[in-house]
Amino acid sequence: MKRRIRVSSSQREELVDITEQVSALVRDVEDGVIHLWSLHTTCALTVNEGADPDVARDMLAALHELVPQSSKFRHAEGNSDSHIKTSLFGPGLTLLIEDGDLVLGIWQHVFLAEWDGPRKREVAYAIVSAVE
Amino acid sequence: MKRRIRVSSSQREELVDITEQVSALVRDVEDGVIHLWSLHTTCALTVNEGADPDVARDMLAALHELVPQSSKFRHAEGNSDSHIKTSLFGPGLTLLIEDGDLVLGIWQHVFLAEWDGPRKREVAYAIVSAVE
Amino acid sequence: MKRRIRVSSSQREELVDITEQVSALVRDVEDGVIHLWSLHTTCALTVNEGADPDVARDMLAALHELVPQSSKFRHAEGNSDSHIKTSLFGPGLTLLIEDGDLVLGIWQHVFLAEWDGPRKREVAYAIVSAVE
Questions:
Q1: What are the sequence ranges of the domains in chain C?
Q2: pTM value?
Q3: Which of A31, B11, B76, C114 is the most buried (most CB within 10 A)?
Q4: Which ipTM was obtained for this model?
């Protein structure tokens, strides 16, 4: 069975909040984990502060400066920076579930980190419900 | 059921060795995995060398330089660098368990990477014991 | 039971494609996840584009520049850069399995990111087959 959620980005570099979409998947899971996997090589998944939007802006600006869209790169599509930032943040996340809720700290939101948008993206998932 | 371990840091930037605390959780698990999750947006989890303390010092110094505590950031709390380093290292880890022991290489120790301490931190965990 | 795959690198910095080796482990798994763990502190695991080899070259070049093999480091073995890049990419991966195949996007390949080769490396794994 293919388990997928769909995410759309509207900027080249953007943190798209997918907390609600992921939370909806685990409502009926008493205790377990959900594994999330981005099916792409130019966007990643991460968890960080979702309260003050300036945090996301600062993160995007810092990563943009850290790995510039340089002309030195050889990959002809001009998005090597996007590939690199994808491996730095990582394409997968494993989130814990307790009593039908994601186990997240008070400030933690789940984001798809878009590094080469705007695009339509797919995130695969699998739930393991037997934990102790 | 809430499964948590508590970790205290004593510096703004510090790698706190939590290998013993995590090992103690898996003593009775024959074969499985333990998922660890930091409940915070300014500290991460990582595994790296624990034998020579200079490795941790070099890692902290390099990250401090890579993502400086810059005045250019907009987030008013002045800890955007901490948020960024948290997403670079990542807030979660999945460790393997064989015969009641963490599956770690000879030099590998488990660390909470504190990027905005000193603070009291909480790490959630879940154990999945049926593996093949 | 010890579950391990062996990987050899031939350069100091190299992305070694291990997609085939990992795929072979999951052929008989209907639905599940495979957890991979590098047992070393100077190589990591990542997933990124495997079609155009220039992507790997650009990634290695960018990381080499981002974390140089600097003389400022204190760790006497001269490979602090390798340790740092290991924590940036991360030593573990959790991949999804559907119908005996890894759930990967069309461009995604699994790589061991060697940061201090050439070396012989070991990657531990565990499969969890009960997912929903």
A1: 4-129
A2: 0.97
A3: C114
A4: 0.96
